[in-house]
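Changelog-linked ticket: adenosine monophosphate example.
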Amino acid sequence: MSGLRVIVGCKRVIDYAVKIRVKPDKTGVITDGVKHSMNPFDEIAVEEAVRMKEKKLASEVIAVSCGPIQCQETLRTAMAMGADKSIHVEVDAATYENLQPLHVAKILSKVAQEEKADIVFTGKQAIDDDCNQTGQMVAALLDWPQATFASKIEKANGELTVTREIDGGLETIKVQVPAVLTADLRLNEPRYATLPNIMKAKKKPMAKKKPADYGVDVGPRQSILKVEDPPVRQAGSKLDSVETLVTKLRDAGLVPS
Ligand code: AMP
């Protein structure tokens, strides 16, 4: 099972450390002038794909990002981490706000077919929309097996043995390639791109495409009605004794009297 061709979905999202602000008209969140980075789970997927290449399990790692022109920075980061080449599927900023997992899944599955990929690797979820749908939809569209929430991936007897993080434990499954994998947090610790590799990445090939090149209509299938901030946490207070605490809790009906 050498020479696997691996496609990795790399979404550009608002950086995980940024405090999100809702637009005054509540139609979405403010993205202008806000730091963006590669979705953290996608960095983990890129890292794993690059490790597969280093172990001679994969022959080529192709990073794909659908979104506005700035996604090219995300792809350069993926290539600086070790991806061989990349494909930018350009979607303008307004369309990107309504780009949905099904759109991306259709694009990734077409790319997988064109590139004769053996593995489509995505993050388990994008930290902006928290959908956790794209990888699963790619598997359905391609009719490939899927191993989601992967925290360990090994090659055994021509198959992949994947440990999955599930509620309260771990599940180990075998999948045959071609397959879809989605990366969970504990799969690995992504490397930092070194300066020489950042320089090298500038010369790696990046194909520029549009959704129409893959025959995908990215017209919205749902509309956002409202985006709201989480409720503001009430200020706490200090009490001088456990008795006062119990009385307060009883009065508030939070413990039986
Ligand atoms: P989601 O289903 O939106 O939570 O996204 C799950 C994963 O799909 C992400 O971690 C990415 O690997 C991939 N993905 C989602 N949107 C995009 C995009 N616009 N471009 C490339 N990959 C994406």
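Closing comment: Example verified and attached. The chain has one domain: 4-251. Helices lie at 40-54, 71-81, 93-97, 101-114, 134-142, 195-201, 242-251.
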